[in-house]
Write a structure and sequence with these properties.
Layout lengths: L4 E6 L5 E3 L19 H11 L7 E3 L5 E5 L3 E7 L4 E3 L2 E3 L5 E3 L5 E3 L8 E5 L30 E3 L22 E7 L8 H9 L1 E4 L7 E5 L14 E2 L4 E3 L7 E3 L6 E2 L3 E5 L4 H5 L6 E7 L3
Parallel strand pairs: 12-20
Antiparallel strand pairs: 1-4, 1-11, 2-3, 3-10, 4-9, 5-8, 5-10, 6-7, 6-9, 12-19, 13-14, 13-20, 14-17, 15-18, 16-17, 16-19
């Protein structure tokens, strides 16, 4: 039994292994997946001396608790949350040494949705199609964490960072998503397109790793009937029959049969990963290229 491992004491509401995903397989029907807040995942890896592509743990809302079998360096980032080691407060957003057998508790998010836990050496679960990411839609990758699970760890490859606290963006009080209209904006009335780019929506509690669902004005279509299934990309804003836009996130399907009114720029998507239910959402149109 290797001592390079983590025992899961408390799995939390939804904790998964994530890295930078498995791009390049959409033609096979495989989504990219990967950390929803990729900059946060890259930062915590850097803090513990891992390469940016190392797998981390992505928690949802109420964190997790872990017990390493050997001494490790960890860093927690993304959504701000309390961190303790054997009940004693530890730093968030900075490297923390956790002795063998000690209990690392990553608490509930104070703001935001998803916290990221990097461990020196990285989470070394078996890769699938070149990635250790859990894909909730396709079922590829390791299953979500469960109490009592044991996760293998890789060997550290570099020293941890020498910082007190690494600055990270705060979760959004208002989510502004810059969009390029199309390819199916002509399926909607001009009034609906204006409403989409001028009215305020709110993040729905039904949001998940597949898509950020919204509540707000329903968008009226010009063209009735079904759209033949076609390819969709990360950030695509699909409009289902209820007329409320859905922003596709990392675990989105590779094809869809509802019209895509616009596509969100990739740089805005990390903030979408941290937007709690009820957060105001505005879609700001940018010029077509």
């Amino acid at each position: 039994m290797t001592d390079r491992a983590l025992a899961v004491v408390r799995a939390g509401a939804l904790t998964t292994a994530q890295d930078l995903g498995r791009p390049g397989h959409a033609h096979l029907g495989v989504p990219r997946s990967g950390a929803l807040d990729a900059p946060a995942a890259v930062l915590v890896n850097r803090l513990v001396g891992n390469p940016p592509e190392a797998a981390v743990l992505e928690t949802t809302l109420n964190g997790c608790a872990l017990r390493p079998r050997s001494a490790v360096t960890v860093a927690v980032g993304g959504a701000p949350c309390p961190v303790t080691v054997d009940g004693r407060p530890a730093a968030w957003g900075a490297p923390v040494r956790v002795p063998a057998g000690a209990l690392l508790d990553v608490g509930a998010a104070v703001s935001g949705v998803r916290s990221y836990v990097a461990v020196s050496g990285g989470i070394a679960v078996e890769p699938v199609l070149g990635s250790r990411s859990t894909d909730l839609l396709s079922g590829l990758g390791p299953p979500p964490l469960t109490d009592g699970a044991v996760l293998p760890l890789g060997r550290p490859v570099g020293p941890h960072a020498r910082v007190d606290v690494a600055p990270q963006p705060a979760p959004p009080a208002e989510l502004v998503l810059h969009v390029t209209l199309g390819p199916r904006d002509d399926w909607f009335t001009p009034a609906a397109v204006r409403a989409f780019t001028s009215r305020t929506y709110r993040v729905s509690a039904a949001s998940n790793r597949i898509g950020l669902r919204t509540e707000g004005p329903a968008l009226e279509r010009v063209l009735p009937g079904e759209l033949p299934s076609e390819g969709v990309v990360l950030g695509a804003v699909q409009v289902p029959p209820d007329g409320r836009p859905v922003v596709f996130l990392a675990d989105h399907p590779t094809t869809g049969g509802y019209p895509v009114i616009a596509v969100v720029g990739a740089s805005d998507l990390p903030a979408a990963a941290q937007a709690v239910p009820g957060t105001p959402v505005r879609f700001a149109a940018v010029r077509r290229r």
